[in-house]
Design brief:
Elements lengths: L1 H34 L5 H5 L3 H16 L6 H5 L1 H38 L3 H32 L2 H12 L1 H11 L1 H16 L7 E4 L2 E8 L3 E6 L4 E5 L2 H4 L3 E2 L7 E9 L5 H14 L3 E13 L4 E9 L2 H22 L16 H33 L5
């Protein structure tokens, strides 16, 4: 009977104590969070309840499993002890990563709630994300090393590895040159403020938003919901466009290739009406000028200011669509046409042509009338 009750008491007592500690810590964090809602740290720490319970339960079992005096435990005491030690190390690393993430995220949210500069907020977010990944990587390496050192055979291997650390370091550095380059490039991006999460960039002709930055790669979400993943070393070795640097305000450009008879002044008036009705225009400035000419067309450029790249894209499409529609309906002669096709004439040229045709018809009528009268005079009998 004792062989059955003793294991139940040890294991059941460890589980009961674990559940009580988890409940007590969670209750305490909820109370503190309710009293201090301005600090999100306590709410984030509540996510550490599960790794805390696993750590506490494993620690209790590691210290009391030999008290069960069960036959299975006595026969496999060494294996059970090593297994509990491995679980304890892993659970402790899990708890440390969760606690560090909670502290870092709470610091970021407090900063973001009080900051007014969106660019600085994105910069801090990028740095916080990479700091979390660095901490998780360091804790993971330490935990794996500690787990390996629990095996006696690995201690001998570790001693021999330390003896040849110089040679192995050189070999590893050459073999992992690109990986280490991406690692240091990620740190350079995070703390050099080259690109941040949420920045609008143009990479290899693709326009998108930086969605994720890690220590080795960077993900860009394009306007059509595609994801472009590239090594972070790309942003330290090649030029790219960052539309979010130095403020979000942008100038939208629209180019029109038109006929030489295009009504420029009327186009300016039409552009003024379009931008004043557009919600994407920020009200700063706009203009329309002729920037180039060719033997068959002229290049008309419209500039409109916007608050951010998204509004710049919207107002560019709106101006292009409404201006082309207006030219097609009101001034079709201004649109470029194939040289071999008959071009539509502007209203003034059409009036002049009609007036010239009327004058020509009138002169022709007078000439015919004069010839007729002259013929009558020749045919009339001469008085004798």
């Amino acid at each position: 009977m004792e062989d059955v009750l003793r294991p139940l008491v040890v294991i059941g007592g460890s589980l009961a104590i674990t559940l009580f500690i988890g409940w007590a810590v969670d209750w305490l964090l909820r109370r503190v969070d309710a009293r201090h809602p301005e600090t999100p740290l306590w709410g984030h720490l509540r996510r550490c309840r599960l790794p805390l319970q696993v750590t506490v339960c494993t620690a209790l079992l590691s210290g009391s499993y030999d008290k069960t005096r069960a036959r299975v435990v006595q026969e496999h005491e060494s294996a059970i002890g090593r297994l509990l030690a491995l679980v304890l190390i892993a659970a402790t690393a899990w708890l440390v990563v969760r606690v560090s993430s909670a502290v870092v995220e709470s610091s970021y949210f407090r900063y973001a709630s009080s900051a007014h500069d969106a660019a600085r907020v994105r910069r801090v977010r990028t740095q916080v994300t990479l700091i979390q990944r660095v901490v998780a990587a360091i804790v993971g390496v330490v935990a794996v090393s500690a787990m390996l050192l629990t095996f006696p055979a690995m201690r001998t291997v570790g001693t021999s590895m330390l003896a040849s650390a110089g040679i192995l370091g050189v070999v590893a550095g050459v073999a992992a040159q690109s990986t280490l380059g991406n690692l240091f490039a990620g740190l350079q991006i995070a703390f050099g403020d080259m690109v941040r999460i949420g920045d609008t960039v143009v990479v290899d002709g693709e326009w998108g938003t930086v969605e994720e930055i890690t220590l080795t790669f960077l993900s860009v979400r394009t306007w059509d919901e595609r994801r472009i993943t590239m090594p972070v070393s790309y942003f330290t070795n090649k030029p790219f466009e960052n539309w979010s640097r130095g403020g979000t305000q942008k100038v939208a450009t629209v180019l029109f290739h038109l006929d030489h008879t295009a009504p420029i002044e009327e186009m300016r008036e039409r552009l003024r009406e379009i931008v004043r009705k557009s919600p994407a225009w920020d009200g700063r400035d706009w203009n329309l000028v002729v920037t180039d000419t060719t033997p068959s067309t002229i290049v008309v450029r419209a500039l409109i200011t916007a608050r951010d790249p998204d509004d710049a894209w919207t107002v560019r499409c709106e101006v292009r669509e409404k201006m082309i529609t207006w030219l097609r309906d009101a001034h079709p002669h201004a649109l470029p046409r194939i040289a071999t096709a008959p071009a539509a004439q502007p209203p003034t040229a059409r009036l002049e042509r009609e007036r010239g045709r009327e004058l020509h018809d009138r002169h022709d009528h007078h000439d015919r009338l004069a010839r007729f009268e002259d013929g009558l005079r020749k045919d009339a009998p001469h008085p004798r």
